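ok, trying the design again with the full structure, not the truncated one.
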């Protein structure tokens, strides 16, 4: 794959993932302050863009092999939370927030992606972190 084609794929993935996360945040804003989203509602909204982010990072030539190994170790948690018949719980989301999301952010930050792509993915992952942390908050 040529460098320009790879960059185009990353650009497209960033746009799709960013749009999905924007929809997530708009949907989250529809809840009133007194109505906290349930773990199932959160996973229903974060799973598609989160799984897409993992797929992009696992196959991106801009991500180091070491980071890809870390992503591969974190992917099973995401798969278990996002499985079609999975029942999300606070502990699984806490693990996602405390372990998997920071690892994904580190993989993006340490990549050789363009700064624009890095910033878009980091912002998207930060939005997921915020959504997940709403379940952890008392």
């Amino acid at each position: 794959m040529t460098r320009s084609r790879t960059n185009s794929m990353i650009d497209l993935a960033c746009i799709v993932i960013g749009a999905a996360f924007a929809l997530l945040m708009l949907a989250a804003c529809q809840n009133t302050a007194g109505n906290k989203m349930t773990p199932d509602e959160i996973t229903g909204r974060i799973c598609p863009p989160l799984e897409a982010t993992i797929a992009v990072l696992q196959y991106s030539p801009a991500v180091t092999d070491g980071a890809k190994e870390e992503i591969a170790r974190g992917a099973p948690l995401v798969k278990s939370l996002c499985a079609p018949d999975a029942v999300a719980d606070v502990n699984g989301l806490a693990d996602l927030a405390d372990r998997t999301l920071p690892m994904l952010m580190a993989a993006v930050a340490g990549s050789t992606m363009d700064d624009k792509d890095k910033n878009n993915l980091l912002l998207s992952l930060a939005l997921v972190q915020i959504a997940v942390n709403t379940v952890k908050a008392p």
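Keeping the full-length input from now on. The mean pLDDT is 80.
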